[in-house]
Amino acid sequence: MKKHVAILGSTGSIGTQTLRVCRNLGLPVDALTAHRNIQLLECQAREFLPRRVVIADKAYYSDLKTRLADTSIQVFAGLEEVCAAAQLPETQTVCNAVVGMVGLRPTLAAIQAGKQLALSNKETLVAGGQLVTARAAQQGVQILPVDSEHSAIFQCLQGNRREDLRRIILTASGGPFRGKKRAELESVTVQDALKHPNWSMGAKITVDSATLMNKGLEFIEAMWLFDLTPQQIQVVVHPQSVIHSAVEYRDGAVIAQLGIPDMAIPIQYALTWPARAPIDAPPLSLTGYGALTFEEPDLETFACLGHCMEAIRRGGLYPCAVNSANEQAVALFLAGKIGFCRIGQAVGEVLERFSCDPSAPYTLEQVEETDRWAREAVLEYCDRG
């Protein structure tokens, strides 16, 4: 029986590629949600005919409702309705492709309803990893990673004993500014930062890749997904993005997952697991690449990666604070209000100013309060010049 799927964030990069997979596999789509892109959401709704669509920004509800008035599709608006879309009785798998910490509540809603979770929204685990993993364990919910790196680790763990794992090797492309030093990055533009050499992604994640913040978030996410310590994760820059990550076992064997840089591959595995299905993607040609290379990350130039490592070392709500600081700083950069290097500076400022008891359990309300504080702290810091 084909899995019924709900896609949260269907108009973004991961969402549109998830629909590509659903189209090719003939998977029924029960719900689609988007933030504001009603034009694309309407097109998706007309093709896939879900039971319901949700526009998170309520200002666009009337327009979307009018656009779909000639269909039987139910139209809703607001974050609470996004959460409701993650809990439809007939849905087996919820793909959370929402960008940013706003994806945390829908993740918890899907878990509460016992849905299998295909998770692309890494901020969910960065900001609220303790909450999410505890509730998933209570509900017996399987979290299937969609990020190519975490999907690679997940695949390399299949058929092996968890206690035999020594460490994981988390690969990073290095982004568009690999090899550059801090002084060279002072004058880069938004357009420069959005020119990723390997992957086609949304603006926020592409900027995160340019600062290596994305790898820092994935570092934290990997700890929660696979129950690791910081010492069990090594980040390696691999410019070709062919080896998506690897697992080293205690006998010295290293098992890696390879493939072309196409997000449809890990997305499809999350939707079909434990089975595999044919895919409309070209095969990997190792001779076509010729050589695969590896480098140590430059933590001085790309400070965001180091900030994330330090945040998870401190524990508690520190990862939430640096994640929210980054979200706010990237938004300012994309709006042309701060320079590229100010992103890492703002994240570092918040990391040093924030304080919490890392040993104390935290609530969803405390996560959201930390989010608000960090965003305000970034605005204050950037206003000071």
TrEMBL record:
GO molecular function terms listed in the Swiss-Prot or TrEMBL record: 1-deoxy-D-xylulose-5-phosphate reductoisomerase activity; manganese ion binding; NADPH binding
An example Gene Ontology biological process: isopentenyl diphosphate biosynthetic process, methylerythritol 4-phosphate pathway involved in terpenoid biosynthetic process
Span of domain 1-deoxy-D-xylulose 5-phosphate reductoisomerase C-terminal: 143-226
Required cofactor names: Mg(2+); Mn(2+)
InterPro entries the UniProt entry points to: DXP_reductoisomerase (IPR003821), DXP_reductoisomerase_C (IPR013644), DXP_reductoisomerase_N (IPR013512), DXPR_C (IPR026877), DXPR_C_sf (IPR036169), NAD(P)-bd_dom_sf (IPR036291)
Membrane-traversing stretches: none
Residue positions binding 1-deoxy-D-xylulose 5-phosphate: K122, S148, E149, S173, H196, S209, N214, K215, E218
Keyword Heme appears in the UniProt entry: no
SUPFAM superfamilies for this protein: 1-deoxy-D-xylulose-5-phosphate reductoisomerase, C-terminal domain, Glyceraldehyde-3-phosphate dehydrogenase-like, C-terminal domain, NAD(P)-binding Rossmann-fold domains
Reactions accelerated catalytically: 2-C-methyl-D-erythritol 4-phosphate + NADP(+) = 1-deoxy-D-xylulose 5-phosphate + NADPH + H(+)
Keywords: Isoprene biosynthesis, Magnesium, Manganese, Metal-binding, NADP, Oxidoreductase
Record-annotated DXP reductoisomerase C-terminal domain positions: 258-376
Binding annotation for Mn(2+): D147, E149, E218
EC number: 1.1.1.267
Database matches in Pfam families: DXP_redisom_C (PF08436), DXP_reductoisom (PF02670), DXPR_C (PF13288)
Pathway: Isoprenoid biosynthesis; isopentenyl diphosphate biosynthesis via DXP pathway; isopentenyl diphosphate from 1-deoxy-D-xylulose 5-phosphate: step 1/6
Matching Gene3D superfamilies: 1.10.1740.10, NAD(P)-binding Rossmann-like Domain
Biological role: Catalyzes the NADPH-dependent rearrangement and reduction of 1-deoxy-D-xylulose-5-phosphate (DXP) to 2-C-methyl-D-erythritol 4-phosphate (MEP).
Entries under PANTHER family matching the protein: 1-DEOXY-D-XYLULOSE 5-PHOSPHATE REDUCTOISOMERASE, 1-DEOXY-D-XYLULOSE 5-PHOSPHATE REDUCTOISOMERASE, CHLOROPLASTIC
Protein family (similarity comment): Belongs to the DXR family.
Record protein name field: 1-deoxy-D-xylulose 5-phosphate reductoisomerase
Species per Swiss-Prot/TrEMBL record: Candidatus Anaerotruncus excrementipullorum
Gene that this sequence comes from: dxr
